Amino acid sequence: MHHITLDSETDFDGWRKAARALALNDVKPSDVTWRVAGDAPDLFEPTAPPLAPPHGTFNVPAKFVELAEVSILHRNPERFALLYRLLWRLRGNHDLLDIATDPDVAEIATMAKVVRRDEHKMHALVRFREVGREQKSHFVAWFEPEHHVVELAAPFFARRFADMPWSILTPDVCAHWDGHAVSITPGVAKSEAPTADRLEETWRRYYASIFNPARLKVQAMSKEMPRKYWRNLPETSLIKPLSEGAERTASAMIANAAVEPQWLEPLKESDTANGTANEMARKRPDDIETLREEAADCRACPLYKHATQTVFGEGQQTARIILVGEQPGDKEDLAGKPFVGPAGQMLDRALQEAGIDRRKVYVTNAVKHFKFVPRGKIRLHQKPTTPEIKACRQWYERELAAIRPDLVVAMGATAAQSVFGKITPINKNRGHPIDLSDGTRALVTVHPSYLLRLPDADAKAREYRRFVDDLKIAAGLLRRSVHAA
Ligand code: URA
């Protein structure tokens, strides 16, 4: 038996070197044990003589190296052996990774996916606390990742918080940024992390301000942000009181809504002309929650590199109307939800005035990562380019196929470009329904941010009324389509 000891849990180079030597010496996977320095050694297994220095080479697909680099960060202690078994088998079948049903291939792909998800969670859930003040301030966060993702996630924080020195402390390893380079040191106990301070208060106030009772879904929240992370997030102390008040506030919002009927009900059997809602649901190709999970790993364009997370669409899969915006803004990027910042508040108000219940529509963006340029501590929104819109369109198409709404409302030029698949001027096309090739109807209007940017108060009021009027047209169209069905 060959006993291999790697330097650390994330020692990919050590694994690669050992695996190469083992394979070139024709050592079968069943004749190797893998451990990490510091683990208890297996005293009772006989040890094989040392391996001869490897001669020769062999190639493995680049895809395997990519998978191995990520999946080795999984906490499963069997990962080193599984990777070696795959390597061994790849030598006999170079196309093995294409066999998705192969149990080893499936397992390694799942591990890599889980690790990527953990990396995204870390991007989204790390909260820095300020230690020291002004010139001497340093930002420190405590985090407990599920897998060994600290080194993988650290470059994101270096890019994102390039001008502030920070440390992320975890029980496994700690990552530090001094403005020039990331360094890694051994893990520490939670007691070494700083406790609450003024930054937390700011974050709590911000969270309370973006909290929308109409969108409170405790189950989904627990899924997206498992409760084990809650204890390290300053905003979680607000979840209980805010959610307790949510029902009351939501009822008040509905009671204060315009007198237009609340017609945006989920699909009922009687709503469908040629088949039951259940039949339609069966034909739906994707489930929104599955799509959301897949999109969390999207790397179709470079925008994922600087954004905190993918901000996927939000709303019921049975919604009959999809509202499409441009891309998440600063607040949406942090919260992981579309239209929660100032443009979202403007949209909420306009929807309410148009008699549309936001809880019954699906709200999404043409581009699902925040694009910005840093200006000191501020992140300035940047318009997405055509290649970015095109790269992201697959998600909009799949949302559309999953929801199959009666109407899509494109808000602004980027949304219109995505919805129609080509540049579509707003003013020329606004105010009347346009049939899309798949039979869905689309309506074009302005983006709520455009209203926010108008400097003149009269123009702002006038344009806001036009925006509400457009949404009322959407409401009317939907009402008519329900009656016609
Ligand atoms: N602007 C958008 O287009 N989408 C958002 O989610 C927020 C602002």
TrEMBL record:
InterPro entries: DNA_repair_put, DUF4130, UDG_Type-4/5, Ura-DNA_glyco_family4, Uracil-DNA_glycosylase-like, Uracil-DNA_glycosylase-like_sf
Keyword set includes DNA repair: yes
GO molecular function terms listed in the Swiss-Prot or TrEMBL record: 4 iron, 4 sulfur cluster binding; deaminated base DNA N-glycosylase activity; metal ion binding
Biological-process GO terms, alphabetical: DNA repair
SMART domains from the UniProt entry: UDG, UreE_C
Positions of the Uracil-DNA glycosylase-like domain: 312-472
Key word Metal-binding present: yes
Transmembrane segments: none
Domain of life: Bacteria
Gene3D superfamilies for the chain: Uracil-DNA glycosylase-like domain
UniProt keyword terms in alphabetical order: 4Fe-4S, DNA damage, DNA repair, Hydrolase, Iron, Iron-sulfur, Metal-binding
The family this protein is said to belong to: Belongs to the uracil-DNA glycosylase (UDG) superfamily. Type 4 (UDGa) family.
PANTHER family reported in the protein's UniProt record: TYPE-4 URACIL-DNA GLYCOSYLASE, TYPE-5 URACIL-DNA GLYCOSYLASE
The protein's name in its UniProt record: Type-4 uracil-DNA glycosylase
Organism annotation: Bradyrhizobium valentinum
